[in-house]
Design a protein that fits this description.
270 residues, mainly alpha, transmembrane, PpoB2-like, DUF2182 domain-containing protein, transmembrane helix, globular, single chain, membrane, 9 helices
Length: 270
């Protein structure tokens, strides 16, 4: 049976605890990401035909199995996604908590955790799909110089497509669903299944909304700290700023310009 609702003082304490845990989680994930990126950068890359370098992210070390390599990538991916998505997720979780009026503190904290776990579970699924596809493409490029030479052009095309996606109805719909979190005072189911489903739904919409920007990160360099920072800022802005759809289109215009630059540079280099 659910306990008594949180008092005013208890609400403040719960809110402070929530923000404190979120800050610690962000700090831990950010430090882990920076350390991982620095380590990967120190290892360098494999020079490839076409004037680019293959990241060691997709390579298996001599003393590693493929399962171990995949597990290491997934761990790094989740640390990176936690650092990148928390700035925009925390306000959504905050509003979710505000919607659960009349809920005991223990239950409120538990439901919030479930929403967050379900949200990042979706991102872990994406990471589990990305690694084998990217590793296979990297291995194929290593064996076929013609494909390797075409990769810089392909990267430019991917960035162009990602920019164009920012103007689509598909993007607008997922972004709207991602931004449409419960408002203060609304009625929300207060059970674990509903919380898990809410987190899954939020994760699906937000990952689909961020698909184009995430693709840019993958083709530019998944362990590139500068690219991560820029993509994080773009995702946070379009999710939280007033007029998110207009912000997304502005980002799309910038991305299209960047894609054209990459294409011109790739063609010129070739």
């Amino acid at each position: 049976m659910e306990g008594p609702a949180i008092s005013s003082r208890g609400t403040r304490a719960s809110s402070h605890a929530f923000l404190g845990v979120a800050a610690l989680l962000f700090a831990a994930s950010a430090v882990t990401t920076v350390v991982g990126c620095t380590t990967m950068s120190a290892m360098g890359g494999i020079p490839m035909p076409g004037g680019w370098s293959m990241s060691m992210t997709w390579m298996r070390m001599p003393d590693q199995s493929w399962s171990g390599t995949a597990a290491a990538f997934l761990g790094m991916w989740m640390a990176m996604m936690t650092a990148m998505m928390l700035p925009s997720l925390v306000p959504m979780l905050w509003r979710y908590r505000q919607a659960l009026i009349g809920t005991s503190r223990t239950r409120l904290d538990g439901l919030t955790v479930l929403v967050g776990l379900a949200y990042f579970f979706i991102w872990s699924v994406f990471g589990a799909l990305i690694f084998p596809l990217s590793a296979a493409l990297a291995a194929f490029a290593m064996e076929h110089p013609t494909l390797a030479r075409a990769m810089p052009i392909a990267a430019g095309v991917v960035v162009l497509i990602a920019g164009a996606m920012q103007f689509t109805v598909w993007k607008a719909r997922h972004l709207a669903c991602c931004r449409d979190v419960p408002k203060h005072g609304c009625s929300m189911p207060t059970n674990a299944i509903a919380a898990w489903r809410h987190g899954l739904r939020l994760g699906v919409h937000c990952s689909c909304s961020s698909a184009g920007l995430t693709a840019i990160l993958l083709v530019i360099g998944v362990m590139n700290l500068t690219a991560m920072t820029v993509v994080t800022a773009a995702i946070t802005a379009e999710r939280l700023a007033p007029g998110g759809e207009r912000v997304a289109r502005g980002i799309g215009a910038v991305v299209i310009g960047a894609g054209m630059f990459l294409l011109v540079r790739a063609v010129g280099f070739g």
